[in-house]
Amino acid sequence: MKSENEIIDDFTAREYEFGFVTDIEMDVLPPGLNEEVIHFLSAKKEEPQWLLDWRLKSYEAFKRQKMPKWQNFEAPDVDFQDISYYAAPKDKPKYESLDEVDPELLETFEKLGIPLNEQKALAGVAVDAVFDSVSIGTTYKDELRKLGIIFCSMSEAVKEHPELVKKYLGTVVPPNDNIYASLNSAVFSDGSFVYIPEGVRCPMELSTYFRINSQNTGQFERTLIVAEKGSYVSYLEGCTAPRRDENQLHAAVVELIAMEDAEIKYSTVQNWFPGDNEGKGGIYNFVTKRGICKGNNSKISWTQVETGSSITWKYPSVILKGDNSSGEFYSVAVTKNHQIADTGTKMNHIGKNTKSRIISKGISAGKSQNSYRGLVQIGNRAQNARNFTQCDSLLIGNKCGAHTFPYIESKNKSAMLEHEATTSKIGEDQIFYLNQRGIDPEQAVALIVNGYAKEVLNQLPMEFAVEARKLLSLTLEGSVG
Amino acid sequence: MLAQVDTDFQEQITNTFEDLSNGVFSSEPESLQNWRKEAFSAFMDLGFPTIKNEDWKYTNVKPYLKSNFTIIPNLQEIQNGIPAKTENFFGKELSAYTVYVVNGKINFEKSNVPDTNSVRIQEISESYATDGFLSRLKCKRDYSINPFLALNNALFTQGIYIEVEKNFQLDKPIHLVHLSDLDQEYFQLAKNVVIARQGSHFELIESVENTGHNNFFRNASTEILVEPNATFNHYKLQKGSENIRMVEHTEVEQQADSQYNNYTFTFPGYQFVRNNLNLALTGSNIESHMYGLYLTGGKQLVDNHTLVDHQQPHCESNQLYKGIMMDKSRAVFNGKVYVHPIAQITNAFQQNNNILFSDNASVYSKPQLEIFADDVKCSHGSTIGQLDPEALFYLRARGISESEGRSLLVNAFAFDVAEKIENPEIRELLENEISKTMTGVEY
After folding, report:
1. Out of A393, A405, A425, whose CB is closest to B375?
2. How many Å apart are CA B155 and CA B72, to the nearest integer?
3. Is A432 inside a domain boundary?
4. For a FRET experiment, which of A30, A338, B385, B413 has its CA 20 to 30 Å from that of A354?
5. What is the pLDDT along chain B (443 residues), one digit of tens a residue?
6. CA of A193, closest CA in chain B: separation in Å?
7. For residue B179, which of B307, B68, B79, B284 has the smallest C-alpha distance?
8. Count of domains forming chain A
9. Residue A197 sits in which domain range?
């Protein structure tokens, strides 16, 4: 049996398994950011004038803003002029079925363990795979179309459903929300657009795989999901990235809009390149995700499993505007080596009888820093608002840190808020108990961690839950604290 | 340029510092002079805190600084007589060694100082040469979290020095009563130092009252050293005139095997109170408890900030703050626990419970943990809610009036804090005060 130190070394030294580069010619814009780049981008995508104006307005907002300083880590110096703002596979292929897709591309997905074809048949998942900035193939489109569901890339939506995009784009995350949201609004390349009409329950999990490939290309995805009255949708997002030496910036914006009685479930599994053992390289994941429960009785639920990126900095939030609406946030964040995670949520209670539930599980190992930062705000008209927050941290080794920064604000006397947090390590007695029953320490840790994160993993849809469990065991096995 | 205050007050600050540097400060020990200079330049850089400062996010001091304040009042006006109305200060019925500090000076005539050589109570200005005072100058201070402390360190001229000798146990608590009755709008800068020598055991109570009709801003700081095996219970009773605005900074250094307990009780009265309580746990086997109860009313703003710095292994810290907000009052709680990498086997707990009694009241709670060691047990909890209507119904069904029922329930809510008070008289005082405050409150 390995000694404790060996096991820890083993674990901390584990290399990123999905580090490889696909060799496909790219149509890349030279690095740099100015108005011309935005004009070029917009022209390339054949966008209408209003969108170009909107991008330019966002760029103005971006120029005005300063880098925030409140975060619990040293923000890296991102040189926005050193990033190329457009990259697309040359001659975008237009296939009817996935069989015609470039085999090399399919192989990439295969290596990542995303058998598109298999998924198509098995799980009934419609996959809109985003390879860098342009979507390659969209499946199950016809079936969705019959129900009136729109599930397409953002650029397609701009062309085919401009009235919907114009109506909702930037209404939840305004272009001047924060510096990265402004940047995204100015230069977003592509993303997904989902529209569920009134009373429709989306029959399958909608899913997109984001992947960063071209060197020095920040990916600026824009996702917009609108669920009309009484509809339901579950959306999955998963990420892996090839190994790189230079830091890559990912500044996406996700907007969710739930009308009366609608429900949106948004799940993320993120496993981007976290940098090597020295913390070099790795993705900066600076994402603005926000949903609004616009109508009464609506519901938005965020679930995230964060294991990758050198810096994860995001707060998926819910604005609870409609009466009786509810927001949920379930998160597992794992950091090791020199990774940093500063993540959490914001629940903004505005309507009456609004409910929110926050479950956050942080696991830090190696020399990593893991922070939970959350805001629960009860406005003075939010009668009988209810919040429950639990954020637990698990420390593995004594070189890492776990931090909790909850902000709890109430202006209504009938509101009830609860917040609790604990920090501890994996109990030696727990390991011992499992050892006694013939389970080796590595498996024991995997079991305990999976049990610790179970509350969150249970929220994931079936297909994702399996992947997430595997990911957790993989990243954490052998880490006896 | 200092934000938040007008140019007159700014000029007064700079002029006062220059005058004092050339005057009384020049005869002070060099280390103190340097300390003052450093603090003053830090203050000039920082200015008064704005809401952009994370530690002052919910507390805008600007309206409380808006007055025609005088930092150093005309010395002739400082009388040593106790103002007539002082009979009414909060906590006067407690049996203790009552020490009256009138306008910053001890009135020995009226005070009841312990009759022993083992306890030293004197003016701070006469204590600059003592070991205890000089040892405090060696501590590094992070002024960015509280610029008021920088201003205080730069300019204080008054305050009290208390030292309790090795292994001495005092039979009754010392009660410091800070009184002011000036005709001017007074911006008081006071520095207290308390040294609990090895193995000593004593209690200190502090009350603040202003009997003058003018606005009074108290910017006070207390430096405390608790030596090995000493036990020090520190009570702050905060209730008094509505023209009082107060920033109290308490900096505690605890050495191995010591115990420090802080109890802070705030009732309706003072317009604005900010309590900063910083504990540095520099040895092993230290125990620290912080208990707070804030019952706020009117347009009051009560802000409690704590910071517990676990620097060594095998220590335990415990925070319990409970609040009831009424009328248009606001309350802020910000607790921070910091555990250094070497501080293994640390137990740190933090709890903050709040009840909102009015739709116009608000509460901001921010319990923080920053942990760098793995073998620790740290937890925090925070709740905001209201009285249980079923519990109230239960009481009313048994013939208890609504207001009495509420008073009972609030007392029960506060019981967790009250039961921790070692001094039975203070516990009784607190319980009575809660009942009195809650009677007739509209819900």
Report:
1. A425
2. 10
3. no
4. B413
5. 566 777 888 888 999 999 889 988 999 999 999 999 999 999 999 999 999 888 999 999 999 998 888 887 655 555 555 565 556 788 888 999 999 998 888 888 888 999 899 999 999 999 999 999 999 988 888 899 999 999 999 999 899 999 999 999 999 999 999 988 887 888 999 999 999 999 999 999 999 998 888 899 999 999 999 999 999 999 999 999 999 999 999 999 999 999 999 999 999 999 999 999 999 999 999 999 999 999 999 999 999 999 999 999 999 999 999 999 999 999 999 999 999 999 999 999 999 999 998 889 999 999 999 998 888 889 899 999 988 889 999 999 999 998 888 888 998 999 999 999 989 999 999 999 998 888 767 66
6. 37
7. B79
8. 1
9. 18-427
Q: Give the largest Cα separation in chain B, rounded.
A: 72
Write a three-state SS string for B2-46: CCCCCHHHHHHHHHHHHHHHHCHHHHCCHHHHHHHHHHHHHHHHH
Contact across the interface for A419 and B361, Cβ inside 8 Å: no
Asked if residue B95 belongs to a domain, the reply is yes
User: What's the total number of domains in chain B?
Assistant: 2
The ipTM of this complex is 0.85
Which of A396, A410, A423 has its CB closest to that of B363? A410
Whether B274 and B402 map to the same domain: the answer is no
From B361, B376, B380, residue closest to A413, measured CB to CB: B361
**Residues in chain B within 8 Å Cβ distance of A415:** 356, 384-386
Asked, for residue B334, whether it belongs to a domain, the answer is no
Q: What domain range is B98 assigned to?
A: 7-282
Q: Is the dihedral of CA B387, B390, B394, B399 positive or negative?
A: positive
Pairing of strands A340-349, A311-314: parallel
Is the pTM above the cut of 0.90?
no
B355, part of any domain: no
Set of chain A residues whose Cβ sits within 8 Å of the Cβ of B356? 410, 412-413, 415
Q: Is B291 within the bounds of a domain?
A: no
